[in-house]
Description:
Elements: E1 14-17, E2 23-29, E3 32-37, H1 58-64, E4 68-69, H2 76-87, E5 98-99
Parallel strand pairs: 4-5
Antiparallel strand pairs: 1-2, 2-3
Amino acid sequence: MPPAPSNGPRPTPLVARTAGGDRVSITLAGSRIERIDRPDSPTSSVVVPGLTDAHGHVVGLGLSLVRVDLRSCQSPSDCAERVRDMLAKVPACAWIQGRG
C-alpha cells in the first residue's frame, strides 16, 4: 500500500474502546491504520493486526474452492465429469482432492 501523503491536513482520529475497555484514538490513512494512541496512558502501545475467526471454518472454505465437490453427483459419470473439469484447471501430474 502506498504511504500516506505527508502534506495536507491530518485526519481526525476516531475514538474507540479495546476489548478490555481502554480508550484508544485511531488515525486512519486510506484503508490502513496509521497511528493508535492511548490518551489515558503515558506508555506507548503496539497493535498487531489479526484475523478473528468466529468459528467460521475459514480454512475449510478456502479448501472447498480448490477441491472437486462430489456431494451432489447423480451418477458415476457425473462424478467423472466433475473430476475431468478439475483436471483441466490444474497443472499436469498435479494431485486433486474431492469431497462427497
